[in-house]
Design goal:
This protein has helices at 31-43, 65-79, 109-112, 130-145, 160-168, 195-201, 211-214, and strands spanning 18-20, 25-28, 85-94, 97-107, 114-121, 150-156, 172-181, 184-194, 207-209. By secondary structure, the chain is an alpha+beta fold. 29% of the residues are buried.
Length: 221
């Protein structure tokens, strides 16, 4: 007889995390929720310029490599948790439907309490104000829930939507850098958001669920 062991959210508290706003919910990315996103990943997140992701990026790969590499990267990230660095993966739920992902990444968190973020949306979920809403949600988790003191973001110069979200949410321009996307170099805009600047835009309609049980896993006191 073969015994099957299933990882439950109770065994890995980050899978229980939720961030709830009036428009959408961020749910810890369980395998069941990732399965709901597979058709979107299979169809392709982006198929023409401007390309939003820097290299290496599994979402640029061809099927079925894209799906496999995407899942493997998330599974590796779950198991790579140190006091200084970790990554929380969330599935964006809109009306009960999975429409994208929003990640929160701890960077030198044990000493500097800094974070950055990464996200994507299904093509048919864009241009509806969700990008700003899900970034506001993840920033609320970072600052209010986990005690971050600074958040950073970066986006290619022609990623107008992402740069606009950063600007509207109070990030300050923080220089530029170069990166490659599909092997071609391109200019990145860099952004920085201090806790004080976030507080100016802080919302009181975002609910955090499961934060306290998650902190020990992330080595946060």
């Amino acid at each position: 007889m073969v015994s099957h062991v299933t990882m439950t959210p109770f065994l890995y508290p980050p899978l229980q995390l939720k961030v709830v706003t009036p428009k959408l919910e961020l749910h810890g990315a369980t395998d069941d929720l990732l399965a709901q996103l597979l058709p979107i990943v299979r169809a392709g997140i982006v198929s023409q310029p401007p390309y939003p992701f820097d290299d290496p990026m599994s979402l640029y790969e061809d099927n079925p490599v894209r799906e496999r590499k995407w899942l493997q990267a998330i599974w590796r990230g779950r198991g790579t948790v140190y006091p200084e660095s970790w990554r929380l993966y969330f599935v964006i739920m809109l009306g009960g439907k999975a429409v994208g992902m929003q990640d929160l990444i701890g960077v030198n968190f044990d000493t500097c309490q800094t974070v950055t973020s990464f996200s994507w949306l299904a093509p048919d979920a864009r241009q509806k104000g969700l990008g700003r809403e899900m970034r506001a949600a993840i920033l609320h988790l970072a600052f209010e829930g986990l005690g971050a003191v600074e958040a950073s973001s970066e986006a290619f110069f022609d990623n107008v939507a992402s740069n606009r979200v950063s600007e509207v949410l109070g990030y300050q321009a923080n220089g530029a850098d170069w990166a490659t996307r599909q092997g071609e170099k391109a200019l990145l805009h860099r952004w920085r958001l201090s806790r004080d600047d976030w507080a100016v835009h802080r919302r009181n309609d975002i609910e955090l669920i499961g934060v306290e049980t998650c902190k020990p896993v992330l080595h946060i006191k």
